[in-house]
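STRUCTURE:
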């Protein structure tokens, strides 16, 4: 995403609670409470600092809130994707990994593995798909279905954190990096 479409971190720091949640509440899928709780830690000195505040909100949440956060995520190449009912962010992420272009065999594998995973854990398989292709995602799904429930719950929360980090980096511009890049682009000489 270009810097022109990203909100500067300094602007994020000036947002009141409602505006902050309106702009960043979608970073954690269907869970605006994460942004709402992180808002009180303003001002953020960096995008990683903003992300860390949001992660602390997740980590401090009650287990039932964490479970609801996990369950708010769609299955990969699942029913919501087929029906065109994914959030914009989830649709773009799944598309970037080629999940919207599965062969019939891959689609059948996803359906079978997703069903077995959901039966075992009672929540969807979650992985940050950025940088992965369909075969890598299928391999991770096949491997992780063998995990014990506590480990998989923790792994899903870690993956949700990775997804949120990517989304924040796409949404928020670091003022210092933008300023430094602008100075180097406009500087004519020593």
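SEQUENCE:
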């Amino acid at each position: 995403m270009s810097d022109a479409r990203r909100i500067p971190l300094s602007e994020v720091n000036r947002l009141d609670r409602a505006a902050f949640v309106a702009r960043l509440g979608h970073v954690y899928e269907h869970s605006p409470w994460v942004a709402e709780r992180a808002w009180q830690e303003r001002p953020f000195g960096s995008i990683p600092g903003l992300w860390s505040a949001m992660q602390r909100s997740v980590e401090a949440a009650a287990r039932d809130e964490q479970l609801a956060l996990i369950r708010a995520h769609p299955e990969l190449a699942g029913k919501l994707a087929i029906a065109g009912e994914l959030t914009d962010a989830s649709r773009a992420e799944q598309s970037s990994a080629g999940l919207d272009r599965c062969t019939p065999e891959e689609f059948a594998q996803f359906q079978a593995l997703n069903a077995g995973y959901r039966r075992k854990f009672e929540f969807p398989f979650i992985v940050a798909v950025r940088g992965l292709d369909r075969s890598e995602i299928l391999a991770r799904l096949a491997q992780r279905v063998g995990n014990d429930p506590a480990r998989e719950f923790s792994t899903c929360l870690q993956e949700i954190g990775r997804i949120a980090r990517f989304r924040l980096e796409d949404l928020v511009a670091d003022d210092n990096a933008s300023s430094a890049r602008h100075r180097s682009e406009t500087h004519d000489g020593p």
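REMARK: Confidence is low (pLDDT under 50) at residues 178-190.
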